[in-house]
Amino acid sequence: MLMRRLSLIALIILATATACKKKDDTLFYETGRADVPVKDVPKDILATQQAFTELVKNVTPAVVNISTISKKKVENPFFEFSPFFNDFFGNRPRYRRDTSLGSGFIINRQGYIVTNDHVVRDAESIKVKLSNENVYDGKVVGRDPKTDIAVIKIDAREDFPAAVLADSDKLQVGQWAIAIGNPFGLDRTVTVGVVSATGRSNMGIETYEDFIQTDASINPGNSGGPLLNVHGEVIGINTAIVAAGQGIGFAIPINMAKQVVSQLVAKGSVTRGWLGVTIQPVTEELAREFGLKKARGVLVSDAIAGSPAAKAGVRQGDIILAFNDKEIKDAGHLQRVVAETAPGKQVSVTVFRDGKEAKLTLTTASSDSPEAMQARPPAGEVDSLGIAVEELTPDLRRQGLSGVEVTDVDEAGVAGEAGIRPGDIIVGVNRKRVASLAEYDRAMRDAARRGVAVLLVRRGDASIYFSLRLR
Question: Does 168 participate in catalysis according to the annotation?
Fold first, then answer.
């Protein structure tokens, strides 16, 4: 009887253990297919997934990882404000080696690579890594800070895989956008979104702006990488993000880049067209005053004597409606289309004058011509802050300094009242480094829109911040 009971208990324990085991096996995961069999997934969804997979597989070999090493001057307040440490270590420049990462893409089989200028700016050495893990030394062919485009080259005996460039003028809002790059050093990361907007300008990022906006995730390290359409063609160069927002990235349209890249490859620099007018936006009030039905085009506030515009008959008070039969949207648009026009080219300009339209013919000049250079505001002219700035002298640059030098100060001006002095070197505006007059001007235009400029100033061995409210 006892043996029978023990056998029964053993059977119960064994059955319970077996049941528990089966329960444990299915507690954390289920085996087999999901409730919806693969054959029931819509074919268009599977086709879309396969299209993205094939696109990435085909384009990735042309996308490169760019790493640079540059020499940067150390800004260390501990040393700069301490006479003891300056006396002990000597009043000498202090430097550090900076490394940075970016992206790029090969545009032909000879190894020419497009990237952002800020990726390779000031680089002492450039390393380019391909998807097959081969690493090459990169050499800068040419740079264009005004559009933030650079071309570098790598050399090898074999041909390189090259990306195909699209026609970005045909781009439409809502189309797919795929970004490939190296954000935060994460090699060849792929993100997908849509084209959120086109023609974004007045962002204060570059001199010439016509950005594609996308919500495809772009992060530090993506700079210089390609933005692609669903055909795997490059529609833009990933360039910038809005740090305060999510899903807002900007890319340079590839059609804008094509002209710049061609010149950089041919001669290492870019020559732009010049019209010779100073312009301003047409507001609704100005449109009414000048007899326009609605605000459009740009108003000529001055036509520079001897310039192509003046020779063609453009006058102060004209409203430029079209350039070479292309309707002008705003001041930035006119600057861009003129800059993209080769010097010496005959073009038409449509102006609104005395209540009617007139078409004029002119021949563009070079922005580097003596006439254009003479028409630029003279270096050292006092600006709205009440200061005059100039490029640093070669002697200052040899000391490792970077920025613009304050050469004159209006003591009653905003900067003078804040304590800016002649001889100060402005190295940053609103936490962005400035290395030239062009970069300073861009930064100040952006600051004017914000209404505040926080200047980082180098004075002797000290670095000082000044916060200026722009009137």
Answer: no
